[in-house]
Specification:
two-stranded antiparallel ribbon; binds acetyl coenzyme *A; globular; alpha+beta; 7 helices; 256 residues; single chain; 17% strand
């Protein structure tokens, strides 16, 4: 999309021709014009009745727009923002989620299928520190669905009334993350309960008990006629058990 001014005049552009706008930033007439024209072109390309991206709908929001430009040409834009969504799974269970969403995505017709969309998308993933399956997609067009399938192998989803697409991997990874979190918290707990001082305490206690047990066995052998061996053993074992469980339960409480 050709403008009669350098795009870098109204927004900062990096060496790759990328700019990142946010809804809270200062705006000017030229910046407004870029957002307005690109928003209208995107709506037209998607056959939408309503324009999704316009200066008035963008400023004062927490949304972001990634722009790719070259001199006076704006090649594409990608708008993102967080939404509160209700997602129903196949069993009818509804989950409330707040994913980052792709709200509007457009590459100028003259440069489509040349990798500009991928470049914009990758820049957004890098800056937002997110992977494609963790995003929601607002009413994706067949071209966007093709794009996601081709570049990121995303295709499985359950259609929703709100028209947002959330790929099944969003939830699979969530489960995986939960498992990872659980595993890492268990390993943290293990590390915590295995701090050298505790291990040392337990070790010295065990060795004390071993020494006592050996001494008492020797003593028992000597006194085998006067005392039943199991009486001393049982008492000692009970003492050992009580001391060990005492130490362990102290550690468990500390963990909590
Ligand atoms: N028909 C079918 N698939 C297409 C088309 C097309 N005309 N254009 C791009 N794609 C998909 C294909 O998978 C294509 O791979 P292929 O050429 O090997 O078949 C892949 O995208 C190409 O990747 P890029 O070159 O990186 O993508 P591009 O620069 O074309 O940007 C985009 C993709 C943004 C979808 C662009 O095609 C576009 O602006 N389309 C019109 C507007 C639109 O539909 N936007 C998405 C709206 S939904 C939303 O914003 C949430």
């Amino acid at each position: 999309m050709q403008f009669n001014f350098l795009i870098s005049k109204c927004m900062s552009v990096n060496e790759n021709g990328m700019s990142i706008l946010n809804g809270g930033q200062q705006h000017n007439q030229q910046l407004d014009e870029v957002i307005k024209i690109m928003g209208e072109a995107s709506a037209k390309a998607q056959n939408l009745k309503q324009v999704i991206t316009s200066p008035s709908r963008f400023y004062q929001t927490d949304q972001g727009i990634y722009i790719k430009s070259e001199g006076k040409q704006c090649l594409g834009m990608l708008k993102i923002g967080r939404k509160n969504l209700f997602h129903r799974d196949l069993s009818g269970l509804v989950k409330e989620i707040q994913p980052l969403c792709v709200l509007d995505f457009y590459v100028h017709e003259s440069v489509q299928r040349k990798g500009i969309g991928k470049e914009l998308f990758e820049e957004m993933l890098r800056c937002e520190i997110i992977s494609p399956e963790k995003l929601a997609y607002d009413r994706p067009s067949p071209k966007l669905l093709g794009f996601l399938k081709k570049h990121y192998h995303l295709s499985n989803y359950i259609p929703q009334n709100n028209n947002f697409v959330i790929f099944s991997q969003y939830f699979e990874n969530r489960k995986q993350n939960l498992n990872n979190q659980l595993a890492s918290s268990q390993s943290t707990q293990f590390q915590y309960s295995s701090t050298p001082s505790k291990v040392e305490q337990l070790g010295s206690l065990m060795s004390q008990m071993t020494i006592q047990s050996t001494q008492s066995k020797n003593q028992q052998q000597k006194d085998s006629k006067s005392q039943t061996p199991w009486a001393t053993d049982q008492k000692q074992q009970q003492n050992m058990y009580q001391t060990t469980t005492g130490l362990m339960s102290a550690q468990i409480c500390k963990k909590r």
